Amino acid sequence: MTTMQDVATRAGVSAKTVSRVFNDDPHVTEDTRERVQSAMRELKYVPNMLARTFREGKSAVIGIAVPDVADPFFAAVTKGIELAAREHDMAIVVTSLGDNPSLEQSIIESTVRRQIDGLIIAPIATDQSYLSRWQDSFPIVFIDRIPTKLNADYFVEDDFGGAFEATQHLIAHGHRRIAIVGDSTDVPTTRLRLEGYRAALDDAGLENDEELIALGSRDTDAAAQVCKNLLALPDAPTAIFSSNARFSTGVFPALQALNRTDIALISFGDFPMADVLQPSVSVIDQDPRQVGRVAAERILARIAAPTKRFRRKNVIPVKLIERQSCQSVRAPSASAAMQ
Amino acid sequence: MTTMQDVATRAGVSAKTVSRVFNDDPHVTEDTRERVQSAMRELKYVPNMLARTFREGKSAVIGIAVPDVADPFFAAVTKGIELAAREHDMAIVVTSLGDNPSLEQSIIESTVRRQIDGLIIAPIATDQSYLSRWQDSFPIVFIDRIPTKLNADYFVEDDFGGAFEATQHLIAHGHRRIAIVGDSTDVPTTRLRLEGYRAALDDAGLENDEELIALGSRDTDAAAQVCKNLLALPDAPTAIFSSNARFSTGVFPALQALNRTDIALISFGDFPMADVLQPSVSVIDQDPRQVGRVAAERILARIAAPTKRFRRKNVIPVKLIERQSCQSVRAPSASAAMQ
DNA sequence: AAAATCTATGTCATCGATGACATGAGTTGC
DNA sequence: GCAACTCATGTCATCGATGACATAGATTTT
Asked: What does strand D contact on the protein, if contact means CB under 7 A?
């Protein structure tokens, strides 16, 4: 590993002068500059960023913590963050939080030790108060899910609005018995989506049948099972609102396996191939890449202007993409109910 | 930011003693240890990893460079690497190389400056000789694509074998005119898959019709277009071998749009929802998570035993997952040709 | 009892780059 | 001709943690 001192010796100057050349300090003669530069080339000098950033106390790194990097939604968010970060020569350190909320804090702490300059987190636990001690060391931005027991910037999708619109859409297509499938209401996102769902039903004067509220699934397979159970009910739903994209990839195959593609389906969150499935699946689209970008830009803005005030709570609008999965009224009981 | 010195002052000892307590050095009296520990707690001391790793010259970070983090294949690879890395308390710095080969080197260099302890790369350029200068600083492992103009460890899927098997599978189902769709043959991976395809045709005594070799697409949309052109040929193919998963997500919708799901399709690389499409798509499965894990383990093994010798070239077997998309002979011309 | 050994703790230097400040040579102005 | 400046370059200290080595008591060995 070549250091500045090595280059300095080779060029017959002091390390400081090499530093000056490297940082384009104007107070260096053309002659010296050239000698240093060729020494750098000969020795293939590559700066040790660790040394520089350690001195600055910063690392030029944005930490990212999401439930799962391999999830298409978070993968796209990560991409958005990366592209924004690169424009400022910052790198990203990515961490998956997994699905065990009790590990969140320790995973985050091991990231924080690396002196990150900012943290973007989509939390899985129900208490982020442990983050407060770092709030004046570096900016923290929440995405997808709002912080709990902590005040911090966040960028979330319009969970309530999207769920409301999705449910309303199903109602407009004649459905009266609409189920909601999703994970636990411990997740604020899910809670809001449930509220949106309820509000839409209320708005239409429809009953909130608790039997149709099938939340609490832990993974895709569980969601598929829940879906099967719903359809086995005496008074089964004619439509399903899947409150997150990951579970939709479980619900859809389940419907297909039961040969019940007559059941309408709408998904909160687009997912790969949703547009070419048969029937193609209507979704509430969230534009994850954009979420990543705005979160990264907020981090960068806060780094650049630590005292400036910003809007804490940011709700990103979502968009209904209508496809086939709830286009026609396929539910006989629903049309009967309309009379 | 609390430093060891702060803790030391609070506990009335020297920084070194704090360091000893932190690193479980046995030469500390129980009394001192407790005093230091409670000082740490009171001051919420979090070690500055940057300082420690800077001193060691290492960063406890594995760099990952892939064409696109948001691609499901590479997202899964990344996850595999992350899980293996975490077991050794290492973090991952992820970078997307994009699709401009001329940027590869500079993107890698900015990652290397961070004193990474290892690099896992799925390259996009056709010359990695620039990496040679770091080969004795830290281990480098290639995945998915073999290095060009450089000797380094690699873990690739069995491109030739997988393509051979896929093509043979189509042939076994009665297809005689089989097209191959994919990106440029500049990509070694694609070249090998083309060879596997050709070998299978040769084996079966079938002609290699250059008209059916439709490589060189740059993205998903281009692949879709190529697919349309193929079907417009006077003597159109009855089956398509899509040489990568990303393009399959373009080819499938194209077939669907043309209402030509009678055309058999097999994809090199599984992709989300491939199993629930109609028809579900047969694939050559690569197990990206495992690729990530073995690559990470190699990096860790090389760090642990720098002089030990390892197998450089590693080919990971692939597995044909048979689904509906080429189950039955739907190609009339093919069955006619069999007579 | 002196010497050898061990124990708990401290002091100092170090990793690489870079700010603060110093130095010495050259230039300008009166 | 010398003060006042400018400019190129050097020296030193620093960031936080930690190895190498030192020291001062306590304990054991002979």
From this structure: A 12-17, 20, 25-29, 31-33, 54-55, 57; B 1, 3-5, 15-16, 19, 22-23, 47-48, 51-52, 54-55
